[in-house]
Amino acid sequence: GFMTRRLSGPSLTVLSAAVMLLGLAAPPAALAAGLGSHALEWPSGEELLRVLTLQDYNTRVVIVGTTLLGLAAGLVGTFLLLRKRALLSDTLSHASLPGIALTFIVLTVLGAEGKNLMALVGGAALFCILGTGAVIGIQRYSRLKDDAALGIVLSVFFGLGIALMGIATRMGSGNAAGLSSFIYGKTASMLFSDALLIAVVALLAAVCGLLFFKEFSLLCFDADYAASQGWPVTRLDFLMMTLVVVVTVIGLQAVGLILVVALLIIPPAAARFWTYSLKHMLWIASLFGALSGLFGAGISALMANLPAGAVIVLTASLVFVFSLVCGTARGLARRGLERLRLIRRIRHENLLREFYEMLEVCGQDPARAELDCDLPQVDISALLKRRSWSPGELRRTLKRAERNGLLSQAGDRWEMTARGLDEAGRIVRKHRLWETYLIEHADVAPGHVDWGADAIEHVLDATLVAELEKLLPGSAQPQMPASPHRIAPLEGEAA
Questions:
Q1: Over the stretch 398-457, which tens digit does the pLDDT of each residue have?
Q2: Bridge partners for 409 per DSSP
Q3: pTM for this predicted structure
Q4: Cα-atom radius of gyration of the chain, to the nearest Å?
Q5: What is the pLDDT of residues 274-313, one digit of tens each?
C-alpha cells in the first residue's frame, strides 16, 4: 500500500549523532543497516501483483479516485486550453488557498470542527469563483491584457492565503495540522468519501461538457462570432469556468493546488498532437488524464517514499513528451518526415524543371510528341550553375530520379526519359500558370514573378490548377504556355 512519510536524510543523521553522543546509539553496522533501509527499494513480485489486482482497500480507493479525477480534468481542460486560458487554472488553484484558511479560522472561532472537508471545499470553491470574477472584471473593465490580469489575481490571492494560513497555524486551538496538505496534496490518505465525491463531480463535469459541446466549441474558436449570432457568451463562459472551478477544487485533495493545474493542461496539450478533431481530442485528453492518474497512483503505491501527486504529474509529463515526439497529427517525428518529403519533392521538381528549360533553350518544343533532335545530355557542372544546390545534394536527387525512371545516365552525363519529359511538362505548366496569375491578377512585375511562383508551385494540386485555367483565358489549351516573365525582343532585334 501507500507508505507514510519518514525522517529525511539530514534529520536522521542529526538524530543519530545525538543518540551516539548519549551512548545509546546502535553499533556502526546496525546504524548503517538502518540508514540503508530508507533507500529506494524495488517492489517484489507479490507487491506488484497486489497492486495490479487492487487487493488492498486503500490502493483501490486512491487509484479509482485519481483515475476519475484525471478523466474529468482532461475533458474540462480541453475547453480551457482551446479558450486560451491555460494559466487560469493556475490562478484558480492559488486563489483557493485563502478560502481554505479563512474557512478554517471561521469554523474554529465558532467552536466547530475546523477541518471539516465539505466546509473547506466550499470555501475553496467560493474563492475560486471570486478569483474568476476578478480576472474577468479586470479583462473587461480595464486596458490590461489577459496575462497581467491573471498574474495580479494569482499573486494577490496567494499572498492573502499564505497570510491567513499563518494566522490559522498560530491559533490557540492547535488543530491546524494538515492544512498544508491542500497545497501539496495527500493522495495516500484519500478516503472512500473523497473518491465518491470525485466520482460524482467527474461524472457531472463530463455530462455537462458533452451536453454543451456545440456551445463550448463555438465559444473556444470564435467568441465574437457566437456573440454576433445571439449566443449568451458571458453565461456560457461562466459555465465553462464553473466546471474548471469544480474540477480544481476536487483536485486539491488529490494533488494539491500547486499541481492540479498539470492535470487540467497537460492531458489536453498532449491530445492535440494526435488529432485535428475537437471531438476526438476530448476523448483522447480524458483517456490521457485517466491513465496519468491510474499509473501515477499505481507507481506511488509500489515505490515507498514517492508522493502520489508528484508521480501523477510526472506520468502526465511522460505522456506529453511521448505525444510531442510520436503524435500522428502534430508530432515532431511526423512533421519532420513531412518536411523531409517536401524538401525532396522540391528538389525533384526543380531538377526536372531545369532539364525542361534547357530543352527550350535548344529551340525544341517539349510538348510535341516527336522531337526535331535528340534529347540533350547534361553534366553535373552545368546543373550546379543553374541553382544553389550542393554537389552531394544534386547527385542524390539525380539518383532518385533515375530510380523512378525519369532520368537516365550515360557516363558522366544525364538525360530525360519520355516519362520524365511528361512529368517535367506538368511541373513547368503549374509554374507558368501561377506566374501568369500573379502578373495579371496580383500586379506583380514580370521581373519579380519567378520568386513567388517558385515558392508556391510545389503545393498546387489539380483543383487549384483547374481554377487557374478558368481564370486565365487560353491557358486550358494543351500546348505549354510561354514563360510570362520573358520579354519578347523588339522589332528589328534578333530573337
A1: 889 889 888 888 777 888 888 888 888 888 888 888 888 777 777 777 766 666 666 677
A2: 414
A3: 0.73
A4: 34
A5: 999 888 999 999 999 999 988 888 887 787 667 777 888 8
